[in-house]
Amino acid sequence: MNLGFSAVALPAMQSVNSTVTITDDEASWIASLASIATPFGCLLSGPLLDRWGRRVALLALNLPGLVGWIVLATAKAGSGFLAQVYAGRLLTGLSLGMASVPAAVYIAEAADQSLRGMLVTWTSIFISLGILLVYLLGSLFPHDWQVVAGLCALFPVISSVVAWLLPESPVWLVGRGRTVEAEASFKRLRGVDVPRHELDALMESRQASSRAAILSDVLRPQVWKPLLILNTFFLFQQLSGVYVIVFYAVDIAHEADVQTDAYLLAVLIGATRLLCTMAVSYATVRFGRRPLSLVSGVGMTVCMAALTVYLYQGATVPWFPAIILILYILTSTIGFFTMPWAMLGELFPLRFRGLAGGITSCCAYTFSFAVIKVYPQMKYTLGSEGVFCFYGVTALLGSVFVWFWLPETQGKTLEEQLAVGFAANLGNVASGMSLGFSAVALPAMQSAHHTPYVSDEQASWIASLVPLGMPGGCLLMSPMLDGLGRRRTLMLVNVPAFLGWLLIATASHSQPWFLYQVYAGRLLTGIAVGLVGTPAVVYVGEVLTKTWRDIAGTWSSLGISLGIVMVYVMGSLFQDNWRLVAGICCFFPAVSIAAVWCVLPESPVWLVSRGWVQEAEASMRRIRSVPLEESLPEKLQQELDAMMHSSTGLDKKSNWKDTLKFLKRPEAYKPLLIMNGFSFFQQFSGIYVVIMYTVTIVRQTGVQVDGYLVTVLIGITRLVMSFVISYASRWCGRRLLCNISGIGMALSIGLLAGFLSLMHHEVISPETAMTYGWVPITALLLSVLMATLGFLPLPFAMLGEVFPAKIKGWACGLSSFLGTIYFFLAIKLFPQMRYWIGSHNVFIMYAATIAIGTVFTYLYLPETHGKTLKEIENFFRGDDKVKGGGEDAKELMPEPENFESFRSSGKAAGGDKTAREVMLGPRALEEGEVLGPNVTKR
After folding, report:
1. N or C, which end of the chain is more exposed by having fewer CB within 10 Å?
2. What 3-state class would DSSP assign to 710?
C-alpha cells in the first residue's frame, strides 16, 4: 500500500479542486521519501532479526507503519501540511524497509523445502495485493486521499494480530540453544515431530554460527558473492523502471498517451501484478528462478522497445500503450519484480543472514529512491520515449547479467538442459534479423533522398536473395553436421552471417558497388539462415531429455521471432540509417559463437557415432549435471547403451547407394515424406507472406493505420506466442497444437480473404472499410498468433526428432533445402499472383491450402511428444508397441545378446568384457590405444 499510495494521492493533491497546492518538486519528494527511509528500516531489520527473533521483528515492523498512516490521514491544509505528509511518508517507508527481510527469512527457515520455492514468492503476492487495494481505494475516493490513508492504517493492526499468533522460527531458536522450543515450533509448523536429520543439521549449523556476524565477515566468499550478485540484480530491477511504474502509475498512463481512465488502468496494472505473482509462486517450483528471470527481462525489453517506438513515431492507437504497460507489468512480475526478494532468504548463510539481508535491502531501496526521485527530471531531459528506451536497455542488460551470474536455487539439472537449449538456438536470432531486415531497410533505400536510388526490381532482389541463399546453406549443413559435429557446426554457421552483415553495414554509396555489396551481404546472410536452423534442432533433439526436448525444440522459432522483433524496433528507431541497423546486427552472430563455445558440449549421439564413448559420457554428465565422482544413473546408462547400439557402424563412410538403399526402409522414407509435406503446406499457407509483406497488405485493405506499427505488433505477437508454445508443447503434444493452429489460421486468413473480396466486389464502400478497419488488422494478428501455435515452429522443431541417426544429417539437409525452395517461391510469386488473380483470390487460395494442410497433419503427422528417439524410429518402422515411454520403451530397443547384463553388472553375459569393450573391441579402453577404425581416445 505504501508503494502504490503516491500513484493515487499525487493526482488528487495536484488537482485544481485540491485544498492544497504542491509543486512537481514537492510531489517528487512525497513519492520518493518512502524510499529514502526504507534503507534505514532495512538496517534496523538485521539486528532485530538476529537479537530478538523473527517473530518479534514481524511484530515491531508494524508500529511505524501504523503511526505513519495516521499522520497522513490527519494532515490538514496549512503551513505544517508538507511537514506532516513528509513525516508520514518517512515513517511508512521505515516500516517498508523493516518488513522487506523478516518475512522472506521466516518462510525460508520455517517452510518445508518442497514448498519453500513457492512460499518465498508470497511476499511479492502480498505486496501486489497491497498495491491493488490502494489503487482500488484511490479509484473509489479519487479526491480524498486522506480517507485512503485512514483505511490503510487498519492493515498494520491486522498484521500485528496475525504475527502474534505465529511460532518463532525453529532455526533462530536452535541458534539460541533453545532446542526444546525449536522442536515444539517445528511440530506446530509442520504438524508432525521434527525429522531428526533436519534438527541435527540445524544443531551443526548453530555450532558453526555461534559467533555473531560482524562487518568483516562480509569479506568471506560465501557472503560477498551472493551479496554482490543480489545487489546487482536489485540495481537492474530498479533501473528498469519496475517501481517507477508502481509509484507513478497514473502519471505514466498520461505520459504514455493512454486514452482510457488513468485510475482504471492503475487498477488493471495492480490486478495484473497480483494475478501474475500468484502464478509465479507455482511456476517457480516447476521452472526455477533463472528461466523465469530471463523470460521476464526479455519481455520487459520488448515492451519498453514497443512503447518507445510508439511514442517516437507519434502514432495514435488508443489501446496500444495500455496493453503494452499491462504486458510490461506482467513480464516484470514473472521475474525482475519478485525473484530478488524471493532469493533474499535463501542465498546467505544462517549466521550472516540478518546482516547481509539488511545490507542488500538497504541498497535496493537506496537504488529505488534514486530512480523514483530522478524520474521527473529524466522525463524533462530525455522525453517520455527516452526514459522508456533507457528502461528497456537496462532490462536487456539485466537479462544478460541473469544469464551469466544469477545462481539457480531450484533445480540445477533443469537449468543446465535449458541453458544448452538456449545457447544452441541463439544463432536463430540473427536469422530472424535477416528475414525482417528488408522490411525496414527498403523504405529507406527507396526514399527520395537516398543515394543511390533503389528501383522496385532491385528492391525485390534485395528482399528475395535471403530465401534464395537458404537452399545453399541447407546443402552445406548436412556434411558439416556429420563431418564436423554439432558443436563446431553451430559455431561455423555464424561466420557467413557476420560477414554478410558486415558487407551490408559498409556498403558503398555509389553504384555499382552498392548493389554488389548489398546483394552479396544478403546472399551470405541467406546462406547463414539455411545453415543455422537444423543444427540447433538436431542438437536439442539429441542432448535433452524427452521431457524438455519438446520445450527447447520450439526455441528455433522463438529465436527467429525475437530477431524479427528486434530488427523491426531498430528499424523504427533508425528509419533513415539502415547501415547502422546492419552494424548492430553484426554483434549477434559473434555472441552466438561465444555462447556455443562457452556453454555447449558436443552432442553425445555424434560422439558415440565416431566411437568416442568416454567423451560422450562426459558430455552427458555435463548436460545432466552428474558429477564425475558419482556413477552414471541407470537411466542415463541405458540411454548411452542405446546410443551405442543405434550408432554401430555409423562411423563408417556410406556412399549414395547405401543411403538410397536405407531410404527404402519405412523409418527413413515415411518421416521424409511427412516432413516435406508439412513444410510445403507451411510455406504455401501464406504465413511468411503476411510477415514479409505486412505493410503492402495493410495498405491493400485501405485501413488508415501505420503499416510499420502493425509490423511491430505482428512481431510482438509472434514472439509472445513463441514463448507460450515452448511450454505448451510439453503438455499438449505436437498433433493437437498443429490441428488447432491449422483451424485457426484457416479461419483468420479466410476472414481476411472475405473482407478483401467484399471490397473487390464493392459490396462495402471505402468509407465502410475504414470504419471496420479493425477486422483485417485483427485477422492478420490472429493468423500470426495461430500459426505460431504449430505451423510456424513445428516443421523445424521436429526435424531433429523424426529421422534415424544413420541419415539424420542428410535427411535434415534435404528437408531444409526443399523447405527453403518453397519459401523462396512463395515470397517471390506473391506480387505476381496478386497481379494475376487479385489479392482476395490469393488469400482464398491460402485459406484452402491451410485447410488441406490441417487434414494432412491430422492424418499423417506422428505424435513425438514424450517419446524417446528410439520409440519414434520404431513407430515409423511399424512397431505396434509404441506407448510413449515407461517399461514399454525397453521392449522397443533391440539389443545384442550380451546387452541385457549391462544394466546390472556392466559386464557382458558369458564373459568379463564391459559394454564399451564389446562395442569397440579388445584393449579399447587402454590409455593412448587406438580404439578401432576411426576411433581414438582423445
Report:
1. C
2. helix
Q: What range does the domain containing 458 cover?
A: 411-630+643-650
**How far is Cα 522 from Cα 507, in angstroms, rounded to an integer?**
12
Tens of pLDDT, residue by residue over 311-349, are 776 656 666 777 788 888 888 888 888 788 767 656 666
Domain annotation covers residue 701: yes
What is the reported pLDDT for 747?
93
Domains: count for the chain = 3
Using alpha carbons, list the distances in angstroms from residue 302 to 90, 219, 250, 307, 600.
35, 38, 22, 9, 27
Same domain assignment for residues 347 and 460: no
Q: Which of 113-122, 360-369, 808-817, 869-878 has the lowest mean pLDDT?
A: 113-122
Instruction: Based on the fold, state whether residues 385 and 418 are members of the same structural domain.
Output: no
Q: State residue 884's pLDDT score.
A: 37
Respond yes or no on whether the N-terminal peptide bond of residue 64 is cis (omega within 30° of 0): no
End-to-end CA distance of the chain: 63
Q: Which of 44-53, 68-77, 187-196, 528-537 has the highest mean pLDDT?
A: 68-77
Tell me the three-class secondary structure of 336-386, residue by residue.
CCCHHHHCCCCCCCHHHHHHHHHHHHHHHHHHHHHHHHHHHHHHHHHHHHH
What is the spatial distance between Cα 356 and Cα 367, in angstroms, rounded to a whole number?
17
Has residue 491 been placed in a domain? Answer: yes
Whether residue 750 lies inside any domain: the answer is yes
Q: Give the domain-ending residue among 832, 863, 894.
A: 863
**Which candidate, 551, 512, 564, places its Cα nearest to that of 688?**
564
Under a CB-based contact definition with an 8 Å cutoff, are residues 535 and 813 in contact? no
CATH number at residue 582: 1.20.1250.20
H or E element at residue 79: none
Say if residue 438 is in the same domain as residue 349: no
Residues 402, 421 share a domain: no
Look over the chain and give the mean of its residue pLDDT values, rounded to a whole number. 73
**392/426 same-domain check:** no
Task: Tell me the per-residue pLDDT of 647-657, one tens digit each, with 9 for 90 and over.
Answer: 554 445 455 67
What whole-number distance in Å separates Cα of residue 13 and Cα of residue 77?
11
Query: Of 863, 898, 932, which residue constitutes the final position of a domain?
Result: 863
The phi, psi pair for 828, rounded to 5°, reads -70, -35
List pLDDT tens digits, range 252-274.
766 666 656 656 766 777 777 67
Please check whether residue 266 is in contact with residue 3, taking contact to mean a CB–CB distance below 8 angstroms. Answer: no
Beta bridge partners, 907, equal: 914
Q: Is 900 exposed, middle or buried (0-12, 13-18, 19+ CB in 10 A)?
A: exposed
Strands 935-936 and 930-932: antiparallel
DSSP summary character for residue 49: I
Assess if residue 99 is contained within a domain.
yes
Per-residue model confidence as pLDDT tens digits over 40-59? 776 677 677 777 777 788 78
Note whether 495 and 553 are same-domain residues: yes
Quote the pLDDT of residue 520: 92
Within this chain, do residues 372 and 417 fall inside the same structural domain, yes or no? no
* Calpha distance 339→347 (Å, rounded): 12
What pLDDT score was predicted for residue 905? 36
Task: Concatenate the DSSP letters of all residues of 174-241 into one string.
Answer: HHTT-HHHHHHHHHHHHSSPPPHHHHHHHHHHHHHT-SPP-GGGGGSHHHHHHHHHHHHHHHHHHHTT
